[in-house]
UniProtKB/TrEMBL annotation:
The lineage of its organism: Bacteria, Bacillati, Actinomycetota, Actinomycetes, Streptosporangiales. Keywords: ATP-binding, Nucleotide-binding, Transport. This is NitT/TauT family transport system ATP-binding protein. Residues 2-231 form the ABC transporter domain. It comes from the Bacteria. SMART domains: AAA. Signal peptide: none annotated. InterPro entries: AAA+_ATPase, ABC_transporter-like_ATP-bd, ABC_transporter-like_CS, ABC_transporter_ATP-bind, P-loop_NTPase. One of its GO terms (molecular function) is ATP hydrolysis activity. PROSITE patterns: ABC_TRANSPORTER_1, ABC_TRANSPORTER_2.
Length: 255
């Protein structure tokens, strides 16, 4: 579905990405972790066609991405800039559904259902300025999920919500992915999260970033917030990724 080939990017003379190769298969959820500031958001914006990388290629189903593809949704890290302030929560979620040719009523129904899934059933008619940061981010997540894109890109989507909501949203993304066969690339700072939701975890080096490792998450599905995190395989993988992110691959395997 998604293939990133030798992607490099520099802002002026600051080299940020130094040749990234990665792929996301049909229906696969790939988590991307890496040190702070290593270029994760730059990678996501390049994949979404929002910036033109200095070098390399992004292919979706074999077709090079020149501009943001129709069958793509993005949840940005910065919730404060991702919603239209003049539209209600339901209006924000319903807006992209116009591109799907849905009737006004069907759009409204889909928006209400998605808001209900993210725990905002009672806030459909609120405007962004009437909602907390975490609520706004949940609206952005509802908008992406309601659109049912073939490929969903998420940049730290759960960073601004409380721990309980975060777990609920992780499970919601897994459920929607399973029901609609979406391919998902999720960028996160949270190593536990990368393992819990991922089929694979791609670890980036410090900037200028390259891929250090791509690890398969061999854990049973459906995942469970308590039981999965208790599994020995989960704990082992989390430690291995932690060491890789901290740049000590020499320690991998030691307990
Ligand atoms: N539009 C831009 N113009 C110039 N420099 C930029 C721009 N966007 C990002 N950078 C720089 O590129 C580097 C990587 O930034 P980026 O946001 O891609 O990293 P990140 O891994 O997502 O960061 P974080 O872990 O803090 O979310 C940083 O040094 C940042 O200052």
């Amino acid at each position: 579905m998604l293939k990133v080939v030798n992607l490099a990017h520099a802002y002026g003379d600051q080299q940020v990405l130094a040749g990234i190769d990665l792929s996301v298969g049909d229906g696969e959820l790939v988590s991307v972790v890496g040190p702070s500031g290593c270029g994760k958001s730059t990678l996501l914006r390049s994949i979404a066609g929002l910036i033109k990388p200095s070098h390399g290629q992004v292919l979706i189903n074999g077709v090079p991405v020149e501009q943001t593809p129709d069958d793509l949704a993005v949840v940005f890290q910065d919730y404060s800039r991702s919603l239209f302030p003049w539209l209600s929560a339901a209006g924000n979620v319903a807006l992209p559904l116009r591109r799907k040719g849905m009737s006004r009523r069907a759009r409204r129904e889909a928006a209400l259902a998605a808001l209900d899934q993210v725990g905002l059933a009672g806030s459909a008619d609120k405007y962004p300025f009437e909602m907390s940061g975490g609520m706004q981010q949940r609206v952005a997540i509802a908008r992406a999920l309601a659109y049912r894109p073939a490929l969903l890109l998420m940049d730290e989507p759960f960073a601004s919500v409380d721990a309980q909501t975060r777990e609920d949203l992780e499970d919601l993304v897994l459920a929607v992915r399973a029901n609609h066969n979406m391919s998902i690339l999720l960028i996160t700072h949270d190593i536990d999260e990368s393992v819990y939701v991922g089929d694979r975890v791609v670890v980036l080096t410090r900037s200028p970033a390259t891929v250090t490792e791509s690890l398969t998450v061999d854990l049973p599905s459906p995942r469970d917030q308590i039981a999965t995190r208790e599994l020995e395989a989960f704990v082992r993988l989390r430690s291995e990724i932690g060491r890789l992110v901290r740049g000590r691959p020499d320690l991998v395997g030691e307990q």
